[in-house]
Amino acid sequence: MRPWLRSEGVDLDVYTYPAKKALASIMAKVKTLCRMIGTNQPLQVLLDRLNPAVQGWCAYFRVGVSSATFGYLSHYLWQTVWRWLRRKHRKSTWQQLRRQYCGGGWWPTTTDQALFNPETVTIRRYRYRGTKIPAPWPATG
Asked: Model pTM?
């Protein structure tokens, strides 16, 4: 750290971002789960498999600067589930699908649960604390 910043008492942020490789892995998992669950299954089965995977990933990466990544993941998740619904009901229109699976809105939901939205996850950031962190080893003099 720069000593002139410490003497002025400037508090610095430490920015941590989810890695692109980690984002690619959850996107691949979402895609795989949507392909594994057949379109002969109800939407509830798909949500039961997708929600825990995405919630766990978001809980792990919520510490740091993740809001843009969560927004991107939210959009990808929505698109993937909509493609699954379009494969399930090939002759239905968007309006019919929205009425049946979203209650007139745009976010897929069932009577029991809704598709998890990563954008709603609260984000916590670590702050740089400098010398306020105690050293784990004894001081030698």
From this structure: 0.78
53-102 per-position pLDDT tens digit: 999 999 999 888 889 999 999 999 999 999 999 999 999 999 999 999 99
Phi, psi of 43 (to 5 degrees): -60, -30
What's phi and psi for 13, nearest 5 deg? -90, 145
Q: Where are the domains of the chain?
A: 19-122
DSSP string of 2-54, one letter each residue? -HHHHHHTPPPB------HHHHHHHHHHHHHHHHHS-TTS-HHHHHHHHHHHH
